[in-house]
Amino acid sequence: MPEIPDLNIFQKNLSAKLVGQKLATISILIERRLRRPVVDFKSSLEGAKLDSIKRFGKELHFAFDNGHSLGLHLMLYGEMHWFEGVNENRFPIADLMFDNGSGLAICDWQKSVILTLDPVESKVPDALDIPSGYLAAKLSKSSKAIKTLLTDGKVVGGIGNAYVDEILYNAKISPLSQANKIPEDRIEILEKSIEVVLNNAERHIVENFPFTINEKERDFLQVHRPKEKLTLAGEEILKVEIDKRKTYYTQSQYLFD
């Protein structure tokens, strides 16, 4: 699933090519996850100029000059591809054709991508913009595993399974730790780890895949390495399932319980 580092890069690359262009047509081929009829998307968006693309949590919002917007959540396996003329990409969910000839295909073999007309912006703080004292207050009220709390999208937005493992590894906190048992000084370290891990990941992706609009390899990840037995530092990777999420960690991460 694309998370903050990926989506920030997608946003920049999509914006460079599409902002300022009019949406000529939107064709939605898979309708089962829509909350509004296809005709509403077409009447609201076609012919409007794209003003901006912004990331909100794990969603991209395409804002148009007529006040309408299109929300896109790629879910686990969603992908975007450029095309010209006819979209020949496999498993298309929707096609967006702009008046400069740029076609954007949204595809997903699992058919789980979510398109939303005029999405409501989440009030959950973004992982890269957490207010002072916010995380400590939230964690103090929950006895859930810290991994669960950070991935459910109700505490912080934009991070999921892979990067939460990386953040907790960087902060040396076990993913099995009880949230309200983590001391404040460790929560401060956790906040710094969120910023460091996400920014470093974005930097790596930009350096290696500067023009991508799709999630690329994650060989640079330290501990979330499903096919490996050791971290990049040579530590044994331990594996456990937490609330149906495959989780990767090491003995060096302290368990607060």
Total helices: the number is: 6
Largest sheet: 4 strands, antiparallel
CATH class of the largest domain: Mainly Alpha
Poorly predicted runs = none
CATH fold-type name of the largest domain: Helicase, Ruva Protein, domain 3
CATH-defined architecture of the largest domain: Orthogonal Bundle
Strand order of the largest sheet: 1-6-7-5
Q: Tally the beta strands.
A: 10
Structural class: alpha+beta
> What's the quaternary structure here?
single chain
- Outline: elongated
Q: What portion of residues is helical?
A: 25-40%
H/E element sequence: HEHEEEEEEEHHHHEE
State the domain count.
Answer: 2
Describe the structure in your own words:
It is a single chain. By secondary structure, the protein is α+β, with helices and mostly antiparallel strands. It folds into 2 domains: 4-117, Alpha-Beta Barrel (N-terminal domain of MutM-like DNA repair proteins), CATH 3.20.190.10; 134-249, Helicase, Ruva Protein, domain 3. The protein has helices at residues 4-18, 38-45, 134-140, 146-151, 161-171, 184-208; strands at 23-28, 50-56, 59-64, 69-73, 79-83, 92-98, 103-107, 114-117, 238-242, 245-249. The strands form 3 sheets. A 4-stranded antiparallel β-sheet has the order 1-6-7-5. A 4-stranded antiparallel β-sheet has the order 2-3-4-8, covered by helices on one side. It has a two-stranded antiparallel sheet with strand order 9-10. A hairpin with a 4-residue loop joins β3 (59-64) and β4 (69-73). α1 packs across α6 and α5 crosses α6. It is elongated, with a radius of gyration of 20 Å.
